[in-house]
Specification:
- The protein is mainly α.
- The chain has 16 helices and no strands.
- The chain has a domain at about 1-45 and about 245-310.
- The protein has helices spanning about 1-15, 25-35, 35-50, 60-80, 90-95, 100-105, 110-130, 135-155, 165, 170-180, 185-210, 220-225, 225-240, 245-255, 255-280, 280-310.
- The longest helix has about 30 residues, at about 280-310.
- The protein is globular.
Length: about 300
């Protein structure tokens, strides 16, 4: 989750430091451009952990998850309204998710409505497919996903635009699928499979996610092309961090939602302000990430404190 948060922050805030013509500049811009895979990492890991949640009472499960993320979403929507980033009509459309359905990734904080959509579907999908083995569940889920994505992309084009979420659904399904094998793979096997997926996976993501964005047959097909790279990276990180408890990394991983909301609301202003003060790109990047992380940690701590107070 910490890596996912950093990828997303770099994608939105990082100012290229090296000249574009040289190899360092090309590598830097490649990393910045594919920072969107942080979202895929996040959805995979969210689905992975959801698999171990108690979904016996579906509405209790949905309410718990909804109450965890929606107040933060509403708070930032109100802040955007006050700051003039959202008009009043768009504010109301945003808080009831209509703007997300119409504009997809162009909607304010689209990440949160997409996350809540996953929470709504998950317990019902889990119950409906419970009688099948993991491989059949994955095959059925992917078939339903493909049919739904075709229907939305081609049947509802101009009315509904949520391809940015639909093309992250395979990452969600893979997270649910691999959760069934928790603890079954040795570190060696994870390293081998991870390297086998990650290194060759850089080739399609370079051609179809960096040089050009693949939009066939779905608008967000370049997200799906990135999946081998994403899955390989996850397996490598899982093997590398197994048995290690790093409080700083853990704390950062718990602030993904806060980091996303803060950078989407004030990230551009923060970077521009710091660059005007420093006139140094490297220093601006470091300070921007540092300020973002500190603010996210403080907001996350406040959210957890309020949650504990409510429970008591």
């Amino acid at each position: 989750m910490a890596i996912a948060a950093i990828f997303i922050a770099v994608y939105h805030l990082w100012i290229p430091v090296f000249p574009a013509g040289g190899l360092p500049g090309q590598v830097e811009r490649f990393i910045i451009t594919i920072g969107y895979i942080g979202v895929d990492l996040f959805f995979f890991l969210s689905a992975y952990t959801l698999t171990f949640s108690n979904t016996a009472s579906r509405w209790k499960f949905i309410f718990r998850r909804f109450s965890k993320v929606y107040p933060m979403f509403l708070l930032f929507c109100v802040a955007a309204l006050v700051m003039g980033e959202l008009s009043l009509p768009r504010f109301f459309a945003t808080v009831v998710f209509l703007d997300f359905l119409r504009n997809g990734g162009g909607s304010f904080l689209w990440f949160v409505p997409a996350l809540i959509m996953m929470y709504l579907v998950f317990p019902y999908g889990k119950a409906a497919l419970s009688k099948f083995n993991p491989i059949k569940r994955l095959a059925i889920s992917l078939t339903v996903w493909a049919a739904l994505t075709f229907a939305v992309d081609y049947g509802l084009r101009g009315i509904v635009d949520i391809s940015i979420f639909l093309c992250r659904v395979p990452a969600i399904l893979l997270g649910v699928f691999l959760a069934e094998y928790e603890g079954a793979w040795s570190i060696k096997r994870r390293l081998i499979v991870g390297a086998t997926l990650f290194l060759p996976g850089l080739v399609p993501i370079y051609w179809f996610g960096y040089l050009d964005k693949l939009t066939v047959p779905f608008d967000g097909m370049f997200y799906i092309v990135a999946l081998p790279c994403v899955l390989g990276l996850l397996l490598l990180l899982d093997a590398a961090f197994q048995g290690r408890s790093l409080k700083a990394i853990g704390a950062l991983g718990g602030t993904t939602l806060e980091m996303y909301c803060i950078q989407m609301l004030v990230g551009g202003v923060l970077v521009n302000t710091l660059f005007r003060l420093t006139h140094i790109k490297v220093l601006t990047n470091i300070l921007s990430l540092a300020v973002l992380i500190v603010c996210s940690l403080m907001l996350s701590a406040a959210r957890r404190y309020i949650g504990r107070v409510k429970l008591s």
